[in-house]
Amino acid sequence: MIVDTRTPDPKKFIKGATGDWEIVIGMEVHAQVSAKAKLFSGASAEFGGEPNDHVSLVDAAMPGMLPVINGFCVEQAVRTGLGLKAEINRYSVFDRKNYFYPDLPQGYQISQYKQPVVGEGTETIDMPDEGRVEVGIERLHLEQDAGKSMHDQHPSMSFVDLNRSGCALMEIVSKPDMRSADEAKAYVSKLRTIMRYLGTCDGNMEQGSLRADINVSVREPGGEFGTRCEIKNVNSIRFMGQAIEYEARRQIGILEDGGTVDQETRLFDARSGETRSMRSKEEAHDYRYFPDPDLLPLQIDEAMIDDIKASLPELPDEKKARLIASYSLSDYDADILIGEQASADFFELVAKGRDGKAAANWVINELFGRLNKEGRGISDSPVSADQLGAIVDLIDEGTISGKIAKELFEIVWQEGGDPRAIVEDRGMKQVTDTGAIEAAIDEIIAANAEKAEQVKDKPNMIGWFVGQVMKSTGGKANPQAVNQILRDKLGVE
Amino acid sequence: MSELTELTISAAREGLKAKSFSAVELTQAYVTAVERARILNAYVKETPELALEMAKTSDKRLATGDAGPLEGIPLGIKDLFATKGVHTQACSHILDGFKPTYNATVTQNLFDDGAVMLGKLNMDEFAMGSSNETSYYGNVINPWRRKDSNVALVPGGSSGGSASAVAAHICAGATGTDTGGSIRQPAAFTGTVGIKPTYGRVSRWGIVAFASSLDQAGPIARDVRDSAILLKSMASPDPKDTTCVDQPVPDYEAAMTGDIRGLRVGIPKEYRVDGMPGDIDALWHQGADMLKARGAEVVEVSLPHTKYALPAYYIVAPAEASSNLARYDGVRYGLRVPSDDITEMYERTRAAGFGPEVIRRVLIGTYVLSAGYYDAYYVKAQKIRTLIKRDFEEAWSRVDVMLTPATPSAAFAPGEITDPVRMYLNDVFTVTVNMAGLPGIAVPAGLSDEGLPLALQLIGRPFDEETLFRTAQVIEEDSGYSAHPEVWW
Amino acid sequence: MSVDQTTVRRIAQLARIKVKDEDLPALEGELNVILDWIEMLNEVDIDGVEPMTAVVETSMKKRKDEISDGAMPDSIMANAPASDDHFFVVPKVVE
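^ Those are the sequences you sent over. The predicted structure of the assembly is below.
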């Protein structure tokens, strides 16, 4: 029984040929657990590696091999569950999911079927138009990842590498609560952020740490749920949006033509932007799930849950609320800062004892802008929080102007160093001495008497004078003072 | 030289310590005996050079006083146990050429204690069988024959090679595995002692898996003392096996005090089956009398779900096997039938590699787990297991050990039983023990009307192998059983 | 419950074991003999009984998160029927 928790929102309807349609989206995200070793074997879980190097006898399913669980992977699943405000099941069971594929050496995957380690929870996403949307989490379970088969190395043979086989995955299943591609993208993005904060998954989609299977169906607004199709293994957020939009339109097209949608599994083809049916020889899989007799039921005690709860970091939603309250930030700015825990931490170092908005401006617009341009991350920043903070201080004290500050930023970026020392050494201090400014202004007015007369009629020309004064003072005159004195002398309001 | 192969492990141990002979001499005697007994087809892979090398190392250790508890003792290893660099095929064609790069924990334990490996022993393919008639390498012949007959008989199974080799004195002792009776039944058919330890007592790591929740490794030996010695070495905690307990291994030999005064022995009435041969029934009564005579209290108990154990076993074991055998697919080791696409390769390799009994059981197992049947079969069978275990738990409040026959008949001839269900009934007395995870020992106690060995079974509380050894010792001593097969090979 | 040849064929397909058409009748018979015998379990009252979830009563042992295994590609490939540069080689998978 699917419980419909969302009120139909006309802003999200898709206009078909015959009327409006609503998209219903649910997602199954596979997140690779951040851990050194695999879920049931002690081989390395590191990405890459020489072929079949991160493989133990257990991973290769040699005769007589047995699984032994990595306790830390269990903790990571609990941690993620707590981050999703979900029910932690004190008792859960590992089941074998039986099927044949060359990258599945055991001929079964150890997964969890009816009794997963984590139950229902919620993820809150902030959508620009509607505000907060609660997406229900159905469950989270642990399972083994499969190896990799490469089909393009040889015309008639496939090559199998088991390095990834047995790595721990968390499968996070949402309820079908999303109603637009944007919501789905926001959901995955937020999920990724939460797990990065928790340190339970690095969310590196290029390396396959995070993959999504998307269930899409369409229906008349608020009507009966339609037949859904599953789009498998989408590995970028951008592709998710494209795949959902294409699939929704495909289904609408079928239904408006009077046909029915077949329940099937589909793949997204990034080149064409279309989804296509996975035509395989077999009919519906019969996985013959049964509890793995080589393992025992997983029992989680209160002490473990309490320990993990106590060690949880401040999560994105809480951090965002606190930043807004403590630093008077806008929603928009707060969102940017909490995107990565390191960004938020950096910001707080800069904002400590300083004006929050000024700090936000410098961190987001100047630093992040520059980092993005060079494809660098905050951990890679050539300007430290201390250095940036010093620049903000120098402006605040009036020692340098905003314009000079940008030059100073560039110097620190390229060469490093203490901003205060640089300002001293290179004489970058703002000229605030009104006497000196007056003198400079008098010179320029004297040299441009005609223009000075015209200003009274064309007040905008004052800008030209400001420019001249800044040029003659090497940009160091305090702009506000220049403006004020010029207006006085030129007789402009 | 051949007298050396007449020594039990405990006697050989003494002889080596006393320097009456060397480990090399002992091993050489067995190597010769193995060659002479090839007609029994007990060994699928003889390893004489390796054995002599190991014996040489043992002699060095014996000289420096570094001897382990099994130093220099020549053993046969069932083909189900991984032995590094040596043939390990579960007697199946599908594992053609497989030589593991690892030793099973049990194998390693035995080698660490100084044991010498004579070779790998024949068995029913993937341990599925009760007569060793399903091996890819052909049948094993029981050294025992009926009185005045030279019809070849089966040694029982699946550890048929192990039992036959121990009875024929072509090894000092052997390893076996028991999933439904595969140590105890062949031990019973060959007049040897076989114990299936409590589930979780011995590590399963490196033993080709048949049915994970039922398999246990154990020794087959010439007498109770030898089997206690072997189990002490085979068993150990193992961090590589989740189902293996962390409890230390007791000194089983020390438990053999012979004192069973006050022991409460249960006779489960449901083990009295229709058509039970008179000689077996008589032996059962004699066994009870022996124990009474030594001060035990014998009472009747009831294990009401006994008769459901065997059919439930034939749901659970094939189900687990169908999944455990999925890895034999021609991709990473063993037989591969070349094909154009992967599905063809799987299907042809497995059809060619598995024998008919294995295929039957894999298909049953696949069926009982399949959509729509899982609850009706697998879940039901697992519930029946709970009931079987409860029956025993209820009985343990009143008794300490139970006495039953080991098998419903003595050894039979190959081809005599073709109906699969009739073959399965060989395990009717033994399978309850696996389903409940308890320890059970088969000890020879008499001869059938046709002169073939008959055994009694003792079933114990979880992890109470000590009581089993102590009680079995009494039966061994008081039954006066001392028969040996005539050497006709 | 009993199986017919179609079911046997389907099960064999699930189990990836090729069964020749001419062998289906015999296999059907053998399986049904076993399945008929198993029917006797219907006599048992299993109401309110929990299935056995663990044969040995102990809590599941857990490993520490450290790299303690692997880095043995030669050992992994040692018995491979076909390999190339430490990859397992198999006939193409038809998607």
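Chain C has a mean pLDDT of 93. Chain C touches chain A through 37 residues (CB under 8 Å).

Shout if you want it in another format.
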